[in-house]
From TrEMBL:
Keywords: Coiled coil. GO terms for molecular function: actin binding; phospholipid binding. Residues 453-500 form a coiled coil. It comes from Volvox reticuliferus. GO terms for cellular component: actin cytoskeleton; cytoplasmic side of plasma membrane. This is Uncharacterized protein. Residues 97-109, 530-540 have a biased composition (Low complexity). The keyword Coiled coil applies. GO terms for biological process: cell projection assembly; membrane organization. InterPro entries: MTSS1/MTSS2. Residues 97-142, 414-433, 525-549 are annotated as: Disordered.
Length: 549
């Protein structure tokens, strides 16, 4: 993707001319094509590049391939270009609305005829109409016709003014639509980079959650939302939290399941089963994160495109610059403004999602010292004449503070100087960042608590696994001991049988008969038969004490 350049020049009439172009993409000047060649510092825009740009083309044309390669810094630069263009369009529409509301002063003619021009027309037409009304009876027809012609000319002039104002509003609406569609496409195609871009922009907000809520409350007052819009946004927040709560609960169980089933011994059968369970939990966690992203995107679309009007959305984008509008933070601010604080469970869920939740009892009015950055009139909405004196000093101070913060944190610096080296007038400037020590301390404390909880859970799991292993080892040892005892008993029985057989065999070999008390002389064959029956008997045969003499 080529470089994005934004240049602002002051025209001869005192207006501002915005020129933004990307290498290889053509050039756009104030939303329309520019005819003659224009030297911009060391860069020149060729006529061929200007001719290839259509009037209906996007401010920053992005192909699907280019979107897939965008980083969070590139997204921020594109967002910056759109906000600067919106600031210029807002100034134009505001001036057009003021002219249309004020109208020209009424002019009167002679004694008989008096007339006024239409809204936005020329006052001379009304004066001419009055003079023509003083004709005599014989020439009344021609005089009336001339007066009607003059009045029609005045009406045509007024219609031209209304048409230019309508065109400015249409251009503003088109830019807002382009930016919102681009951000939605990025949220789907580049979810991680889009999340980085949002987190990257939140550093310009306040230190604590309370200050951030107050900042959004002050912005909403300048946006002039209706009570119906405010209630609708708060209701959308309730629906969003209802949808997101089971997703967050499922994630807690999945995290515990992954930690429990992490395999420790790859050669054991149970560890193989644990590996399968852990793999399934990781797959479910991926789906869980995707579901959360879809619900968050749905909530943002419902708020910014369903509730906000295009002019309100443009003012919101310009006023909260360099930060990005946060639907959840805005909804929380409106909830406190309407006196509908969140419950403790809802506050905890909101904080887990990266939002801000402050009870109404602890919220102060919009006018405290913590919201001076957004309570002041934004530089882009100041009249050009007001920027000559004190306004110019304020802009220079804001530029210096914002540029210092960007240099300290190694962030992409916005285009803040024109080719002549002077300050940009009429463009949104970064707000003065506030110290972030308290916020960092809170984040560190939360991270430490989470780490301690995870460490305690891991220790419990390790102890359980050790106990299970010890029980298994004890059972195996008992089984081995029982097997050894059984083998010893069998060996003893075999030894006894062998001793009996060897004894009778030796006895039959030495004598043909055996004189046993009470039985007399037994033949050798009968003795062998008896000895065979004795040797084939069970191990319960009593052992002989001594060999008879």
């Amino acid at each position: 993707m080529g470089r994005l350049l934004v240049i602002v020049r002051r025209t001869a009439g005192g207006g501002l001319l915005l020129c933004s172009f990307a290498e290889g993409m053509g050039t756009r000047v104030g939303g329309t094509r520019r005819g003659p060649r224009h030297d911009v510092a060391t860069d020149e825009v060729a006529e061929a590049e200007l001719a290839s740009l259509g009037t209906g083309q996007a401010l920053v044309p992005l192909t699907p391939e280019a979107i897939k390669e965008l980083t969070s810094e590139d997204i921020y630069r594109v967002y910056q270009t759109y906000v600067k263009e919106l600031s210029v369009r807002l100034v134009e529409t505001t001036r057009g609305s003021v002219r249309a509301a004020a109208g020209p002063p009424a002019a009167s003619g002679g004694d008989r005829g008096e007339g006024t021009a239409d809204a936005g027309g020329d006052g001379d037409a009304a004066a001419t109409d009055g003079v023509k009304g003083e004709v005599k009876d014989g020439a009344s027809a021609s005089g009336s016709g001339a007066a009607a012609a003059e009045a029609a000319a005045g009406s045509a002039g007024g219609g031209g003014g209304d048409g230019s104002n309508a065109a400015a509003h249409a251009e503003l609406e088109r830019l807002v639509r382009e930016l919102s569609v681009m951000l939605m496409r990025l949220g789907v195609a580049r979810p991680l980079e889009a999340r980085k871009f949002i987190v990257f922009s939140r550093q310009y907000l306040g230190n604590t959650e309370k200050e951030v809520i107050e900042l959004w409350k002050s912005v909403m007052k300048h946006i002039e939302l209706t009570p119906e819009q405010m209630r609708e946004i708060v209701e959308l927040k309730r629906m969003f939290l209802t949808k997101i709560e089971p997703i967050m609960d499922e994630r807690k169980h999945l995290n515990i399941s992954i930690q429990t089933n992490l395999p420790h011994d790859t050669f054991h059968t149970k560890s193989s089963i644990s590996y399968i369970k852990a793999h399934e939990a990781v797959s479910k966690l991926r789906d869980n994160l995707r579901s959360e992203q879809h619900v968050v995107l749905e909530f943002a679309i419902a708020v910014f495109r369903g509730v906000f009007r295009p002019a309100q959305m443009a003012a919101l984008l310009v006023r909260c610059y360099p930060a990005v509008p946060d639907a959840l933070g805005i909804a929380s601010a409106l909830a406190t403004e309407l006196g509908e604080p969140d419950s403790p469970a809802t506050q905890q869920l909101t904080i887990q999602l990266g939002g801000y939740a402050v009870p109404s009892s602890g919220a102060s009015g919009a006018g405290g010292s913590g919201n001076a950055g957004l309570l002041a009139i934004h530089p882009s909405l100041m009249p050009i004449d007001a920027n000559v004196g004190v306004g110019q000093q304020l802009l220079q101070q804001q530029q210096a503070a914002a540029q210092q913060l960007l240099e300290q944190q190694h962030l992409p610096q916005p285009t803040s100087l024109a080719a002549s080296g002077g300050p940009l007038l009429g463009l949104p400037q970064p707000l003065q960042p506030q110290p972030q020590q308290a916020a960092l301390q809170q984040q560190l404390q939360q991270q430490q608590l989470q780490y301690q909880q995870q460490h305690a859970v891991q220790q419990m799991l390790q102890l359980q696994q050790q106990l299970q292993l010890q029980q298994q080892q004890q059972q195996q040892q008992l089984q081995l001991q029982q097997q050894q005892q059984q083998q010893q008993q069998l060996q003893q029985q075999m030894q006894q049988q062998q001793q009996h057989q060897s004894f009778f065999t030796t006895l039959m070999a030495t004598s043909g008969s055996l004189d046993m008390p009470g039985l007399g002389l037994l033949p050798a064959q009968e003795m062998r038969a008896r000895s065979g029956s004795v040797s084939g008997s069970s191990a319960a045969t009593p052992a002989l004490g001594s060999v008879p003499q």
